[in-house]
Design a protein that fits this description.
With 305 residues, the chain is an alpha/beta fold. Helix content is 52%, strand content 10%.
């Protein structure tokens, strides 16, 4: 379930079930223009980790940013107050505070797999002892991506946040620190969902290198079908219970947030605001209820650039 990887990046040519967001042939960017009769929002699918090979970005993207008056992002991590609050909320929701440890709530085989990974990656055993399972899974994926040389400081969202700060553009956070931390750490739910998440991530670490590079390649070439294929590749057959967990994770991390993102765009258009908006590419290139499809159903004009 490599969609979980994409959640950390931002979410093999098994193309069955991937909706065609473009005109059938890959175009150059995961970048769209969304319009009504008199206003436009530019919408870029971002990767939260990248490297220097991503830059400079194509002029069609940079020029659209220059023409826009405001930048909308999932959350403004360039704002120190917001960033600190996000870290605080992530610790509050993503760590144990009642004396329990990760080993005390996950099955022995999952604990053994995590220990093996720590040894293979030269991480101290017990590195994740205070983490709740969902946070541990997210962190494992982030560490794996960084081991390949990708850096969150070079992510496309960070690039445009810096440009917005330098040019004095207004920056809009689509989510609060608490909302994002709640979703990405498991919130106040029981840890059953997080255990499934962590177990899935550990099972798929052998695919992490090739999948990450494939997603990066798909982003650079604007191949949303390939991006979608990586998101929806299941490496094992899931049983009924695990399928329910998978659906719940998709609803929590993607579908419910996709609907809110689409509503934000509709509101920006209704108010004639000139917005350049960046959200994780997985929200735009997923096979089900992605932001692009929702906007089309609402009747907006959507053009891939």
């Amino acid at each position: 379930m490599l969609r979980l990887l994409v959640a950390t990046l931002c979410t093999l040519l098994f193309l069955t079930g991937c909706s065609a967001l473009g005109d059938g042939s890959p175009k150059k960017h995961l970048f769209w223009k969304v319009s009504d009769s008199n206003s436009t929002v530019y919408l870029l699918g971002s990767l939260h980790f990248a490297d220097s090979s991503f830059y400079p970005l194509d002029s069609v993207i940079e020029n659209a940013f220059d023409r826009s008056e405001e930048l909308a992002v999932e959350i403004d991590v360039s704002n120190d107050s917001i960033s600190q609050h996000l870290a605080l909320m992530s610790e509050q929701y993503g760590f144990f505070h009642d004396g329990r440890s990760l080993d005390s709530v996950i099955p022995a085989n999952v604990s053994a797999s995590l220990d093996s990974l720590c040894l293979a990656w030269n991480l101290p055993l017990g590195s994740f002892s205070r983490y709740r399972p969902m946070s541990a899974g997210m962190t494992v994926t982030a560490v794996g991506i960084m081991r390949l040389g990708y850096d969150a400081k070079l992510g496309t969202d960070v690039h445009f946040l810096k440009r917005a700060r330098d040019s004095g553009k207004n920056i809009i956070s689509l989510e609060t620190a608490e909302e994002q931390a709640f979703v990405l750490t498991g919130g106040d739910d029981s840890d059953s969902l997080g255990i499934f998440y962590l177990e899935t991530i550990l099972r798929e670490t052998s695919f992490l290198d090739s999948a990450t590079r494939g997603l990066m390649r798909a982003w650079k070439t604007g191949n949303d079908s390939l991006f979608c294929a990586y998101m929806n590749l299941d490496t094992v057959q899931l049983n009924h219970t695990d399928s329910l967990f998978k659906n719940e994770i998709n609803e929590r991390i993607y579908f419910s947030r996709n609907r809110k993102m689409a509503e934000s765009i509709a509101d920006f258009l209704a108010k004639d605001r000139k917005i350049f908006m960046i959200v994780g590419a997985g929200h735009l290139a997923g096979d089900h209820e992605n932001v692009i499809d929702i906007l089309r159903v609402k009747g907006f004009m959507v053009e891939k650039l």
